[in-house]
Amino acid sequence: MTATLVAAPASPAAAEPAPRRRRRRGWLFHAVMAPITLLWIAPMVFVLVLALRTFDDIAAHGTAALPHSFSLDGFGTALGTGGMTRSLWTSIKITVPAVVLTLWLASMAAYALSRYAIPGRRAILLTMLAGNLLPPQILLIPVSRITESIGLYDTLTGLVLIHVGFGLGFYTFVLYGFMRSLPGELTEAARIDGAGPVQIYARIVMPLCRPSLAALAALATTWIFNDLIWAITVLRTEAKLPVTAALLNLQGGYVSQWNVVAAASVLAAVPTAIVFFTFQRHFVSGLLVGANK
Using one digit for the tens of pLDDT, what is the confidence trace for 270-285? Predict the structure, then answer.
């Protein structure tokens, strides 16, 4: 007795060609993401349009009305009497050394922890990571008192050191995971050829870590440049305030001139946007490189 096998009828979805399914999924993805994207960029477009409107236009028609006239007076006022030029330069003087110093120290710490059998290195990593879990609000008073006691209160150097200290643990943890995934044969071959630890770190490990360093540099620049809480905790002199604290003061001085406040907000966002778009390719590859290992 022979058994007859009857094939089950194919479902309509299975019978549909693969390119057509992909095309339909693509349209569905764009139909869902387009409204979300518009909702995301709507506030930025609103602030940019408000910054380009004249004060008389805003006073006559309101902030939510369609623009009737455009002018760059808001940007001129913000950069001139608003003090944004000085505060932008101050933020750059804080951000650049803080980012460079933090990534340099974090890369050396991650290299040592990932390539050498240091006693208690797991406890060191967990301690550094646990420090980033503390909310900064509970450390405001201790940090303020410490900077006063060592003479760094109301100085840019003290603010830079604070950013370095609070960012070092997270960056070390991220770089440690990346450096640990690098093949050990590379460093062993370099060691056999006579390269020392410093040469291996500078000529082999650091070039391979370029994507992750670029991603962390973009994140660190954004976090430090946009910082407000540590700036108003450590600094008191108005001439030393970075762009975020200066923007807060400008809102009080130009409370009715919304075009000036909006223009200052746009100017404060430009440097971080430039950094992100500059490192965009490295940023994406740096985030994905750990998943491909």
Answer: 999 888 888 777 665 5
